[in-house]
Amino acid sequence: MSNALKIGIIGLDTSHVTAFTQLLNDSAHTYHVPGGKVVVAYPGGSPDFELSISRVQGFTDKLRDEYGVQIVDSVEQVAQQSDAILLESVDGRVHLEQFAKIAPYGKPVFIDKPLAVTSEHAKQIAELAAKHGVAVMSTSALRFAEGLTEVLASGEKGAIIGADAYGPMAIQPTQPGYFWYGIHSVEMVFAVLGKDCVDVTVTTNDDHDVIVGRWADGRIATVRGNRKGNNSFGAVVHREKGSQFVDVYSHPKPYYASLLERIVPMFKGEGAAIDFAETIAVIRFIEAANESRINGKTVAL
C-alpha cells in the first residue's frame, strides 16, 4: 500500500464513512477498492441535527480503533495530511463552508450527497473549485448501482424515452424537502436522462410525493417518494421497444464499492465521472421541486 493515496475524511456523522473506509483499507474485503487508504479524519457534526451529532462519537471510535485512522481537530489538518479528501458531512448545509477551507490546498475532493441544499451554494462550490483548480465530484451512490448500470448498458430495446424512479422520501427539517432522501431517486433519473431538465411539477400529501420532470427534448420522468409503505429504491427505464425494471439490489456488489471505483480514478487525476454542471442541475431540480411542493405550481429550472 506504500504507493496508495492518503485519503482524508471530513465529517464522521454518516455510515458512509465506515463503509468507504472498510472498502478502501481492508484488502481482504470481497469488493475491496485499491488505490487509496483512509489515514486521517475530522469528526465534525451538526449540533442542531440529531441524525448527525448523535452518530459522530460511534463512527469516530470505529475509525480510530478498528482502522487506525488518525483523528484531528480541523478540516485544514485533514487537507494538509492527505492526498485526496472525502467530504462526508451528512449535513448539506455545511459543505460550502467546509469546502471553502480545504479548496486552497488543491486536493481532489468527493462531496457526498447532497452537494449543497441551495443551487447558490452549489454554484459557489463550483467557482471555488475552478479558482483553486480542484477536481470535485458529488453524487448519490445509487447513480452507480450495478442494476442501473447494467440496464443503461443494454441497448437492445432501443433509445430511452423516459424514466420513473422511486424510493423513501423522509423529510428532515434541517435538510429542505427532497434534499435528504429524495436526492437518491433524482440521481437515478439524471443518470438515465442527463442534465437538461426544464421544469418540475409536484403532487404531494402526507404519505407520498410525485415529482414530474420535463426534459428539453420532450422526454418526461417521474420521481415517486414514499413516507409510508414501500421503503426500497428502484426505477423503470422506458425505451422505444419496451421498459426495463432497475433492481438496485440485484447485484452483490454494494453501490458504495461501485461509487468508489469512480472516485479513486478522479483522486488520481483521471477526471470526474460526472460533469459538475449535471450535479448543479440535480441540486436545482430538487430546489425547484421543493418550491413546487409548497406552491403547487410548475417551476422552471
A few lines on this structure:
By secondary structure, this protein is α/β, with parallel strands linked by helices.
Descriptors for this entry?
7-stranded mixed beta sheet, 301 residues, globular, alpha/beta, 10 helices
Question: What can you tell me about this protein's structure?
Answer:
The protein is an alpha/beta fold and 301 residues long. 36% of the residues lie in helices and 24% in strands. The chain contains ten helices and 13 strands. It has helices spanning 16-25, 50-53, 56-67, 75-81, 95-102, 119-132, 146-153, 182-193, 255-267, 276-295; strands spanning 5-10, 36-42, 70-71, 84-87, 109-112, 136-139, 160-168, 197-204, 208-215, 220-226, 234-239, 242-246, 299-300. It has a seven-stranded mixed beta sheet, with helices on one face. Strands 3-2-1-4-5-6 form a six-stranded parallel beta sheet, with helices on both faces. Strand 8 and strand 9 (208-215) form a beta hairpin.
Low-confidence stretches: none
What is the percentage of strand-forming residues? 15-25%
**Oligomerization category of the chains in this entry:** single chain
Shape: globular
User: From the helix content, strand content and strand pairing, which structural class follows?
Assistant: alpha/beta
Mean pLDDT: 96
Rg from alpha-carbon coordinates: 19 Å
Helix content: 25-40%
First-last Cα distance: 45 Å
Written as H for each helix and E for each strand, in order along the chain, the element string is EHEHHEHEHEHEHEHEEEEEHHE
Strand order of the largest sheet: 12-11-7-10-9-8-13
Largest sheet: number of strands, sense, barrel closure: 7 strands, mixed
